[in-house]
Design a protein that fits this description.
The structure is a homodimer. The first copy, chain A, has 11 helices and 14 strands. Chain A is α/β, with parallel strands linked by helices and about 350 residues long. In chain A, the strands form 3 sheets. Chain A has a 6-stranded antiparallel β-sheet, sandwiched between helices. In chain A, helix 9 links the parallel strand 13 and strand 14. In chain A, helix 4 runs parallel beside helix 5 and helix 10 crosses helix 11. Chains A and B meet through strand 13, helix 9 and strand 14 of A and strand 13, helix 9 and strand 14 of B. The complex binds NADP nicotinamide-adenine-dinucleotide phosphate (2 copies).
């Protein structure tokens, strides 16, 4: 093959024409690469939680039925893009071929073990065989091939941790890297959902940036996640409050900041209706970073307007330059984060 | 009355308890003010377009039926919060009483003609009589009373323009004020939907900030809106492209910027599925400001990640300090904007 495709993969869109591979219904999963593509021998699919749950439920936990459903999705769409939930997941595998015109963002060589950081919902995939479905880990062992476009991102899997630990960290890699950009020395910072996967990484990074003159506050709704934050030791204050109750959150944050509120709020929850708590805990002219995918755009925009609050609100871009390196290093830097992440995700 | 309520109006929430007035199903519209509230003699309701259209359709254009539906909403909920569309609108009226503990953001006196800049979906309202429904303007002349909480925002109506022109400008007041914050001299700026109401204000403000060394590009899908941009004269380039086609937009913007792309994109469209065009037209490390309420949070977040694009994406907060003054002044400053706005909205 000597064909060079579009860096965004539009050359593989079958229907409807004119859209990008992600919104496309069906893409071409012929496993002959274009000159600017990368071929991956896939061994593991890490199915998105929403998608996996839907398939499991529909199959009534029958592994054989789940297998058929997954093969069927890829057969019909050329990618593991669940038509019900709209979501994908990630994959792990080994680079087996690199097109001569490949211009990806980082160096890679044949034989590297990588994880793709773009969604399965846009990745051409051909499954030869499903070897095993791991219900607990929401992972599937496969014998498959996949293609990465040159606009796609991936990370070389580190050798000092298990693949499932690395995947867990890479899944939320954007959060600590963005925290590093946003937080400055001496600031008050609030991490809502600070005891979760992305939240813990943000807590660490926020304290590192805000420093001894800054104040980092973590919020969780359960005793469990609050205890975890206390155990980590990076939060100056841990508050057990329900983030769907904006007035309670505002009151609690006001108390521990002497009414000053916070300069930066980072929202890392996994549930809806926490926009107002994030906005109200933040100072006028402060910043709210919505990493949570359960954020409602209109909820945030009209909510801030409704109370005349001049805050800068950021959409949590899953990608930022070097985010994978930053996230993996964060866990390596802190022995206690390393220990907690090992216990929870290895 | 000597009671001081919550600045956010939670003291008026009837059901469900514990939420803010906007998400509440029913609020207390007793027209005796708390000490930190403002009482307004309302003469005009400016019903949100989505809400007005729904009511009109449901009533099969029968004015008497529309009237009954509107009274019914306020009767049931204590506010003009359309249960089908979830939206509200704005109101115009005269300040008739100011609570002794009122601490609003700007000075106001009894007798001032004001427009509220918070949604009707959170404003306690009591309609005594509907005088006239203006189908074309989506406005309703009423004899009514309303209450503004001290966290609520409003603008004193200017004397040099008609109320309907002022309302049109105030409706999108956040856009030019944010543009002023975002754009710096010498930058390339893209306004998607630059021929619309908010878009025209942003075009003017962007050119003013980017200056002679900057480059302002306007995009519209119809010849009409593109001609309007050319007539205004503030765009260095006007491109007629469909913003739902990201590759076409990217190509067109690349051509007029010699492949540099833009530092700041401001999205002012009124239709969905334009996130990718906004992201792909912007330089790496550039900024996208989504003023459009049709923006999908996940569309933006996963879209940027899917192509590994490190852009800062901002949620269009409808409020920013002094936004009403900035927006009204924008139109006064430019004779040609003044003329076009007069023709379209006066
Ligand atoms: N932007 C992106 O690219 C991207 C990428 C990956 C993930 N995400 C999103 O990031 C979010 C977090 O992911 P994650 O993996 O870090 O989730 P996670 O590990 O499940 O953590 C969620 C945290 O939220 C807390 N929480 C839940 N309900 C709460 C409430 N009512 N009040 C206060 N805290 C509450 C939980 O603590 P308690 O149990 O104590 O309440 C938990 O610590 C998700 O919404 C996910 O979709 C975004
Ligand atoms: N954040 C806030 O607080 C706030 C407040 C008010 C309004 N808004 C939102 O702001 C947006 C704009 O409001 P507006 O009053 O300025 O709207 P508008 O006057 O109707 O203008 C919309 C513009 O979008 C253009 N457009 C539509 N489809 C397009 C396409 N496919 N490609 C390129 N351009 C396209 C239109 O031009 P053509 O007809 O030529 O396509 C038009 O010029 C709305 O989504 C509204 O919800 C937000």
């Amino acid at each position: 093959m000597t064909k060079i495709g579009c860096p965004y993969g539009t050359h593989r869109v079958i229907e409807p024409q004119g859209v990008l591979p992600q919104p496309a219904w069906k893409i071409d999963n012929t496993m002959e690469i274009y000159d600017n593509e990368l071929l991956i021998e896939v061994d593991t699919l890490n199915i998105d939680a929403a998608s996996f749950t839907q398939i499991k439920k529909d199959a009534q936990n029958d592994i054989a039925v789940m297998e058929r459903m997954m093969l069927d999705i890829v057969e019909k769409r050329g990618k593991h893009h669940n038509p019900i939930t709209g979501s994908g997941g990630m994959l792990m595998g080994t680079v087996s071929k690199i097109g001569s015109a490949w211009t990806g963002k980082t160096p890679v060589k044949v034989g590297d073990r990588i994880a793709t950081l773009v969604s399965l919902s846009l990745t051409p995939l051909k499954i030869r065989k499903i070897r095993k479905i791991y219900i607990e880990k929401e992972q599937v062992e496969v014998d498959a091939l996949a293609i990465l476009f040159s606009s796609g991102i991936y990370a070389v899997l580190p050798s000092d941790m298990s693949p499932s630990l690395a995947l867990a960290i890479l899944d939320v890699a954007g959060a600590p890297a963005q925290t590093a950009h946003l937080v400055r020395p001496g600031q008050n910072v609030l991490i809502i959902g600070g005891g979760g996967k992305s939240g813990m990484l943000c807590l660490y990074e926020a304290k590192k940036r805000a420093g001894v003159t800054g104040r980092v506050i973590g919020i969780g709704s359960s005793k469990g996640s609050c205890d975890r934050m206390r155990h980590l030791g990076y939060a100056d204050e841990v508050l057990q409050v329900d983030a769907t109750d904006p007035l309670q959150v505002m009151k609690a944050v006001s108390e521990v900041t002497n009414g000053q509120m916070v300069d930066v709020t980072i929202n890392c929850v996994n549930i809806p209706n926490t926009e107002m708590a994030s906005i109200m805990a933040t100072k006028d002219r402060g910043t709210v970073y919505f990493f949570s995918m359960a954020t409602s755009f209109t909820g945030a925009a009209l909510g801030a307007e409704g109370i005349g609050k001049d805050v800068t609100m950021l959409v949590g871009n899953g990608y930022c330059r070097n985010h994978a390196i930053v996230a993996l290093e964060t866990v390596r830097e802190s022995p206690i984060l390393w220990q907690v992440f090992h216990e929870l995700y290895a």
